[in-house]
Specification:
Elements (H helix, E strand, L loop, with lengths): L7 E5 L4 H12 L3 E6 L2 H14 L5 E5 L5 H15 L4 E4 L15 H26 L4 E6 L12 H21 L4 E8 L5 H10 L4 H10 L9 H12 L10 E4 L11
Parallel strand pairs: 1-2, 1-4, 2-3, 4-5, 5-6, 6-7
Bound molecules: nicotinamide-adenine-dinucleotide.
Length: 262
């Protein structure tokens, strides 16, 4: 893969999980990074970690909530101010919400999931796309297997992630002519703090048992690793990614192809 030297990349949700793993992966390839998260302390700690491993990396940290339009304008402006342009955008921040039957789902949580996962991704596209029109760019939105399949007890999450898949296709159609390629990834269960929290909800007494039970269903008999997702994202953000546009790419060990029990 070509180096990311002189490439300016924005990553949202960079304080932990998939965002942090990709930040580290791209730091190793000399990208200039604008790292965004609403958890300011977590972001500061993450940046210390990255700087320890890659002292020469250029990083701008922006404490911002992606569900707030003004905050999104702010992180886009900071990236431009620091690096003069935006080449790549990992539109990753998202939350899972709670696990509940759709009829009983708490409406406040429902709206919050939509605000962050759907509106947050949309605001990102709305303000990053115009910055890429002149010179082209690469965008990776984060959907989920829940963006291509139903997932029991996660109605707002599934609704928001299907919307991410839809917006990805539209961005690809409308902006492909500007050499902007927009794709989405659809991760299955990848072992991040978000998924650890989900296993706690499934089995509060023994989350590790819930994880082991879940892994049995996967063709690979294991969960995915954040670094495995990072290498796919890096490809999709790189100049090697040409003519792949508007795709929703599952990274789930093949699990979403399965019908019935393994
Ligand atoms: N981990 C998985 O198995 C998995 C599977 C499918 C999809 N995803 C998606 O991948 C993305 C990252 O998930 P993760 O597992 O790394 O989660 P995570 O909870 O480990 O990390 C998410 C990060 O995003 C930040 N964040 C959340 N809401 C934000 C907001 N409104 N503004 C700014 N920052 C915000 C959090 O502070 C956190 O640092 C999410 O969109 C998630 O839906 C994850």
């Amino acid at each position: 893969m070509k180096s990311f030297k002189d490439k300016s990349i924005i990553i949202t949700g960079a304080a932990m999980g998939l965002g942090l793993a990709t930040a580290k992966y791209l730091a190793a390839k000399q990208a200039s990074l604008t790292l965004v998260d609403y958890n300011k302390e977590g972001l500061d700690t993450a940046i210390e970690e990255i700087k320890t491993d890659y002292p020469s990396v250029n990083i701008v940290a922006v404490a911002a909530d992606v569900s707030k339009e003004e905050n999104v304008k702010k992180y886009v402006a900071k990236a431009k101010e620091a690096f003069g342009k935006i080449d790549g955008f990992y539109n990753n921040a998202g939350i899972e919400g709670r696990q509940a039957d759709m009829v009983d789902y708490d409406l406040e949580v429902f709206k919050k999931v939509i605000d962050i996962n759907l509106m947050g991704v949309y605001y990102g596209l709305r303000y990053v796309l115009p910055e890429m029109v002149e010179h082209g760019g690469r965008i990776v939105n984060v959907a989920s297997v829940g963006g291509i399949r139903g997932v029991l007890n996660q109605t707002p999450y599934v609704a928001s992630k299907h919307a991410v898949a839809g917006m990805t296709k539209n961005a690809a159609l409308e902006y492909g002519k500007h050499n902007i390629f927009t794709n989405a990834i659809a991760p299955g269960a990848i072992l991040t703090p978000m998924v650890e929290e989900a296993f706690k909800q499934v089995n509060p007494e023994d989350p590790k048992a819930a994880e082991a039970e879940y892994s049995k269903r996967n063709p690979t008999r294991r969960l995915g690793k954040p670094e495995e997702v990072a290498s796919l994202v890096a490809y999709l953000l790189s100049d090697d990614c040409n003519y792949v546009n508007g795709q929703v790419i599952a990274i789930d060990g093949g699990e979403s192809n399965m019908y019935g029990n393994a």
